[in-house]
Specification:
The chain has about 550 residues and is an alpha/beta fold. The relative contact order is 0.08.
């Protein structure tokens, strides 16, 4: 942070002081909001104001490819600093087919005057690289791919605004007849993705202004999205989250509970799977956003959201599997525990995930610490006493799944503590099913692998690591089995989420242990539940 501030002060010293603008109240309001959004100290306010009032407007090219202009519409609805400040003071919009007054050859001349490394490129829309005639420009009829390659190569920075340019969008949805793809795949350089259909004006403009002020991108996630905007799920900051936690769901569209703040998961909301800050920034100058208006999130800021999340108005179920892209799950070799231990080298860490016992082995010792109450009566009783929300959750479980509730509450009160993390599948099965299975672990595994979607319903397991052991706590997370079940997610989807979250916890624990001990990353797998490439990927990659 100090580095950014010092760099900014140095840039101010080299700016021509004659290029001064009057600092308006609106400018100060924007800068104060900008500083707060990025969690900078107040020491940044005056230098940023001074920089923006002295600098020459930044050259900006906005290229429209295969798109609907929704991202431009969002951009224009900005209130702070306002589109007038942006276009007249902060940026010099050299090219934008919707907003520029020039047309034809005159408009094309602006592009020819651009100098390498002296302009920012914003791309709206995906690109058809193989069928170039799907997007052509100007009297020369140059293709969108040609324009993008030329402008993207010479730009100081490329920002992909909207899901179409970031990930391909609806144009790239299966079967993708136009062979449309995201921008980075064509230009082969790092880009800043600002996805959404459309993204909010705040996400577009604040990311752009950060890049202009500091001449670098803000911190990005693995998909090159700014972490300040896409670091949390929609669900994390949703105003209806408490109703999800208590199991209070809108049952159908038109349900009066929709206006009472009940959760929309059962009518298709994908908020738990979508990373975006919509609940905070909203749209149209913070007027509203889809969930506030009564429709669930459709995960539009995620790659392949048209294909990977099923029908918009229902949870992800097998009935909608034609919308999903199934993943191949080949069998892999397995070992019994004793063979596994004998073959484990002294420098290796072994993860043995098995229906009989699960261990993390290092230097001949089990370093995994795990305890779980398997008596469903005691589990539900403890959950009901924990808080008002969980009490309401158990009450709703009793209301909507009366037979399951009665079965589980008729269990004896003898405690049954398991030290095998794989037994969370047993507890899940008892909560969700009236059927007794001869081998519940395998049944749950098969159901999980039959789930046709890639999307994981995370169960919020916690991991703590010390010099001697790895502690995995699933007690708090297992409440989500009830939440998702009440929200309409079926057995296979919940089992898939539990297995994925367990593998994630095991991997996280091992990764932190390796860093803490400063040892080589050499992990091997074993156990009867490690029997397909998907679980292997979850544990290793």
């Amino acid at each position: 942070m100090d580095f950014l501030l010092n760099n900014l002060k140095q840039k101010i010293q080299h700016i021509d002081q004659a290029q001064k603008f009057i600092i308006r109240d609106e400018d100060r309001k924007f800068v104060e909001s900008f500083v707060k959004t990025f969690k900078f100290s107040q020491d940044f306010v005056e230098p940023i104001l001074k920089f923006l009032s002295h600098k020459k407007p930044t050259n900006l090219v906005w290229l429209s490819l295969s798109e609907c202009t929704g991202c431009t519409e969002s951009f224009l609805r900005n209130e702070i600093p306002g589109i007038d400040s942006l276009l007249l003071e902060y940026i010099n919009l050299d090219y934008h087919e919707v907003l520029m007054s020039a047309a034809g050859f005159q408009a094309r001349e602006n592009l020819k005057k651009l100098k390498k490394g002296e302009y920012f490129l914003v791309v709206e829309g995906s690109v058809c690289a193989q069928q170039e005639y799907f997007a052509t420009f100007g009297a020369e009829a140059s293709s969108g791919a040609e324009e993008l390659l030329h402008l993207g190569r010479d730009a100081f920075m490329v920002l992909c605004v909207g899901t179409c340019s970031s990930f391909g969008g609806v144009q790239a949805a299966n079967p993708n007849p136009t062979n449309t793809e995201s921008i980075d795949k064509l230009i082969q350089r790092e880009v800043v993705n600002i996805p959404g259909c459309p993204p909010s004006d705040i996400n577009i403009i604040y990311t752009l202004m950060y890049a202009i002020i500091f001449e670098e991108a803000p911190s990005l996630d693995i998909l090159n999205r700014p972490l300040w905007a896409y670091g949390k799920t929609v669900h994390d900051t949703c105003e209806r989250k408490a109703k999800f936690e208590s199991g209070d769901f809108v049952q159908t569209f038109g349900d009066e509970k929709m206006t009472q703040g009940y959760c929309l998961y059962k009518v298709g909301c994908k908020g738990p799977y979508a990373y975006n800050n919509c609940p905070k920034v909203k749209f149209n100058s913070k007027t509203s956003w889809p969930i506030q208006a009564g429709h669930g999130c459709i995960a539009c800021s995620e790659p392949n959201f048209w294909d990977d999340f099923g029908v918009f108005e229902t949870p992800m179920t097998k009935q909608n599997k034609s919308f999903a892209k199934e993943e191949k799950k080949e069998a892999v070799s397995m070992q019994d525990f004793y063979t596994f231990v004998l073959n484990l080298q002294s420098h290796q860490i072994g993860i043995f995930l098995d229906s009989k016992q699960t261990q993390i082995l290092f230097n001949g010792k089990n370093i995994l610490n795990f305890n779980l109450e398997l008596n469903t009566h005691l589990f539900l009783e403890g959950l009901a006493k924990k808080s008002k929300l969980t009490s309401r959750l158990v009450e709703n479980y009793q209301t909507y799944f009366p037979k399951l509730y009665q079965k589980n509450m008729h269990n004896m009160l003898d405690s049954k503590i398991s030290q095998n993390p794989a037994d969370i599948l047993l507890l899940m099965h008892e909560i969700l099913s009236l059927e007794k299975k001869e081998n519940t672990h395998y049944f749950a595994l098969q159901e999980a692998m039959s789930f046709p979607f890639k999307v994981v319903s995370d169960m919020d397991f916690s991991v703590k690591v010390s010099e001697d052991n790895i502690v995995i706590d699933t007690v708090k997370g297992m409440r989500l089995v009830l939440c998702y079940a009440l929200g309409g997610l079926e057995y296979d989807g919940i089992a898939y989420g539990i297995l994925a979250t367990l593998c994630k916890a095991l991997k996280e624990g091992v990764s932190k242990f390796i860093v803490l001990k400063g040892i080589k990353n050499d992990v091997v797998l074993g156990g009867d539940l490690v029997q397909n490439s998907l679980i292997e990927k979850w544990l290793l990659k």
